[in-house]
Automatic annotation (TrEMBL):
GO cellular component, one term: chloroplast thylakoid membrane
Keyword Plastid in record: yes
Protein name stated in the entry: Peroxiredoxin Q, chloroplastic
Domain of life: Eukaryota
Source organism phylogeny: Eukaryota, Viridiplantae, Streptophyta, Embryophyta, Tracheophyta
Native species: Rhizophora mucronata
Amino acid sequence: MASISLPKHCLPSLLAAKQPKTPSSQNLPIIFKSSGSHFLGLKFSHSSTLSIPSSSRAKIFISAKVSKGQVPPSFTLKDQDGRNVSLTKFKGKPVVVYFYPADETPGCTKQACAFRDSYEKFKKAGAEVVGISGDDPSSHKAFAKKYRLPFTLLCDEGNKVRKDWGVPADLFGTLPGRQTYVLDKSGVVQLIYNNQFQPEKHIDETLKLLQSL
């Protein structure tokens, strides 16, 4: 039987040709096919694709524009009744400003109801509670009515205030952050608390600070 001899320098190239190519720095798609589903505060009404960078490229940048001890940028936004509400309205009393991803999502509903259930404690501390998301006034109105929320919900359509305050996003920037600020009577930030996955902890932390002021 005849034998075929190959030069030694050919073997590495032949072996390399059989190796499967693996993407090193491509985006890995996650497909959500269920209609009207909720995922950690994001609403999906139709089939959609969420691209998450691979570990070789994924980086999270948190730029906190508002820090403890600072006076945050003022704003004027519409509430659930379509009325303009300014941050300066609350000066002279402590105010809890909490940013949340969206109305009617599981975590945000749990957080809003926890603020509702402890609302008398906030009043006793002399504090106002204000929730902010990118939903419109009609969405806020329905949300507040359904869960009997006694506090103000403001509409940050376009997320301008969220950006001005530097609220960090989660899941590689795809999920609006859940962050709470406590301002004292002078409008100075005394607490910044961020916890996306334990929404009820925001109430415990803010009350703990307010009761110590």
